[in-house]
Design brief:
This protein has 524 residues and is mainly alpha-helical. The chain contains 20 helices and no strands.
């Protein structure tokens, strides 16, 4: 009965998501036909389906691997991950995605290097969108986290080269090979940087927090065991005494019991060996500050992580809003946020004094991972939603003006439509990739998940700040493997199919894009 109810609920959720996507796409097509002045209406509708299909598969692969660590560690459920993705992915794209969008649209194909017919440019971008989407769908079904950036660039390069070959154009003049080389270099650096940062961060957390907690817990358990054995030994000792000796010893113990719990008692006043030994064990127990890491290191780590995420938002995201904040004001704001997080975390940690140490520590890191998940979602939205919306925005602008411009505005309704497609894609096809990143590559818990997400967010946002469309997938996978190196449980066997998928993503997308371009040319 319960299984039947669960299946019915799942069908209802699937229906709601599908209806939401269909209705949003329908409304966008209605709006977009007017926006493009009904120029090439059939081509616009087809391009919309290609773009939404690409966004759907970006959600199913890239967002899925982004939230794999949060879901795999048990910090977030799938619905909670959906909610965070809906808010922060789209916000990152709208607020901070401009530079990467420009790089995708004008950084690979040189619009000024040759005379390019506007419709040829539309076919190049449409082919790239369809080819990248098809490859991502295949990879998602196999549970392989691949790079949407690799896929879309491979698609653009493949269709552009096909167009050049058909029209007798010099491909060297069409493709900015030096820019492609820079991007390829960043792909190599991405997993390495992600792994190094997460390794350094998590190794510190493991040593100063997790290992210290284990030492404190084991030490206290050892003292407790010795104390229990001591009490049993004393019981046997007391039973061996004569009646008169028992009376005398019991009198001393009664005296000691009366003063033992007084806050200012002097150990020298103890008369019985039993309470002297008991005081020895209690003194050793008091010397172990089991909550030291929870009260000192965890608030510090949370504060540093919060300041870094705040810096990402202020220096990258809010920069495009032109708030007029000076560097001094920005840094003061970041430090205030850090101080507030430290104070809040410290007070909350103090409230966990009498609870289980391991559970309390992971509870703290769970809260921290929620914030890092938000930061990584914002960073990911700033970097990778451009892979879908960038080419489509260029297509829509060409259809509207019948000319190619270096920069194209992205209408908010288009961003919203593609954002919904991202979330729906995560729901329908993202579960296998979440499993791969969250549990199969390395074992995750809230502390390691926090480390992986914070490290990956830092590297992704730095790349977005420089306008380089790097692969957040490679960065996060590298970060997860960095965790696995620290814990010595990295699944290197799984990296073989993942690595192979990384290598063939660009050429596979390029080949699919060539086929798509030839079909579009034949039909239109």
């Amino acid at each position: 009965m319960a299984q039947t109810q669960s299946s019915a609920n799942l069908k209802l959720i699937n229906t709601v998501f599908a209806a939401m996507l269909v209705s949003m796409v329908g409304y966008f097509i209605y709006w977009g036909l007017g926006y493009t002045h009904y120029n090439h209406s059939g081509l616009f509708i087809l391009a919309t389906f290609f773009g939404v299909f690409m966004a759907f598969n970006v959600g199913g692969n890239d967002i899925a691997n982004s939230f794999g660590t949060s879901v795999g560690s048990g910090t977030l459920t799938i619905p909670q991950a959906l909610l965070i993705a809906a808010v922060f992915e789209v916000s990152g794209a709208v607020i901070a995605g401009g530079e990467v969008t420009d790089t995708i649209r004008k950084g690979i194909v040189d619009l000024n290097g040759m005379h390019l017919d506007p419709m040829q440019f539309v076919f190049i971008m449409m082919s790239a969108l369809l080819a990248a989407a098809l490859w991502l769908l295949f990879a998602s079904r196999k549970g392989l986290p691949v790079s949407t950036t690799h896929a879309i660039i491979g698609g653009i390069v493949g269709s552009a080269l096909c167009m050049a070959a058909l029209n007798g154009v010099d491909s060297v003049a069409l493709i900015q090979w030096d820019k492609l080389g820079e991007i390829a270099l960043s792909w190599i650096l991405s997993p390495v940087l992600g792994g190094i940062v997460s390794y350094l961060l998590f190794s510190r957390i493991k040593k100063n927090v997790l290992d210290y907690n284990s030492w404190a817990d084991n030490t206290l358990k050892g003292i407790k065991f010795e104390k229990k054995a001591y009490k049993e030994e004393h019981r046997l000792f007391f039973e061996a005494l004569s009646e008169s000796e028992k009376v005398e010893y019991a009198t001393k113990m009664a005296h000691d019991a009366q003063i033992y719990d007084e806050p200012d008692f002097d150990p020298e006043e103890l008369q019985s060996e039993y309470y002297r030994g008991l005081h020895h064990f209690d003194s050793r127990k008091g010397e172990v500050d089991s909550y030291k890491a929870l009260h000192s290191w965890v608030p510090f780590i949370a504060s540093v992580g919060g300041m870094m995420i705040a810096a990402m938002l202020i220096f990258k995201g809010l920069k495009n809003l032109h708030l007029g904040m000076s560097n001094v004001n920005s840094f003061l704001t970041i430090f205030m946020i850090g101080a507030a997080i430290w104070m809040g975390t410290f007070v909350f940690a103090k409230s966990l004094k009498r609870k289980d140490l391991d559970k309390s520590t992971f509870q703290m890191f769970s809260w921290m991972q929620v914030f890092t998940a938000c930061g990584f979602a914002f960073s990911h939205g700033a970097n990778d939603i451009a892979n879908a919306i960038g080419p489509f925005a260029a297509i829509m602008d060409v259809l509207r003006t019948n000319s190619i411009t270096a920069q194209n505005a992205v209408p908010p309704i288009a961003m919203l439509t593609f954002g919904i497609a991202l979330i729906v894609g995560l729901w329908f096809v993202g579960k296998e990739v979440i499993k791969t990143v969250g549990t199969s590559l390395a074992e995750m818990h809230p502390a390691s998940g926090f480390s992986a997400e914070l490290s990956a967010a830092a590297v992704v946002m730095a790349a977005s700040f420089m306008g380089l469309p790097v692969s957040s997938t490679h960065i996060l996978v590298g970060a997860v493997l960095g965790i696995g190196l620290v814990n010595r449980n990295a699944n290197w066997k799984l990296m073989k199919p993942i690595g192979l998928a990384w290598v063939i993503t660009l050429p596979a997308a390029a080949v699919l894009s060539v086929v798509s371009y030839l079909v579009l040319q034949a039909v239109f």
